[in-house]
Amino acid sequence: MNKNLFTALFITLISISIFAQKEVTVEDIWVNYKFTPQGVPGFDNMKFGDFYSVITRNGIEKHSFETGEKVTDILTNEKLIAVSENRLKISDIDDYQFDRTETKLLLATNLEYIYRRSFKAYYYVYDMQKDKLILLSDTNKEKQSFAAFSANNDKVAFVRDHDLFVVDISNGKEIAVTNDGRINRIINGMGDWVYEEELSLSKAFEWSGDGTKLAFMRFDESEVKEFSMTYFGELYPEEFKYKYPKAGEDNSLVDIFIYDVATGEKTKLDLGDNSKVYFPRIYWLPNGIDLIVMKLNRRQNKMELIRYNTLTKAMNVLFTDENKCWVEVADDNIVFLDDSKGMIVASERDGYRHIYKVDFAGTIAQITKGAWEVTQISGIDQKKKLIYYLSNESATLNQDLYIISFDGKKKKIITDGKGWNTVIFNHTMNYYLNACSDIQTPPVYSLRKSDGTLVRELQKNERLNETMKEYGFTHKELFTFTTDQGISLNGWMIKPFNFDANKKYPVLMYVYGGPGSQQVRNSWMGSSDFAWYQLLAQKGYLVVCVDGRGTAGRGDAFKKSIYKQMGKLEAEDQMATARYLQQLPYVDAARVGIWGWSFGGYLSSLAMFQGEGLFKMAIAVAPVTTWRYYDNIYTERFLQTPQENSKGYDENSPITHAGKLTGNYLLVHGMTDDNVHFQNAIDLTTALIKNNKQFDHFFYPNMNHFINVGNARYHLYVKLTEFVVENL
Question: Mapping DSSP to helix (H, G, I), strand (E, B) and coil, where does residue 246 land?
Answer without folding.
Answer: strand
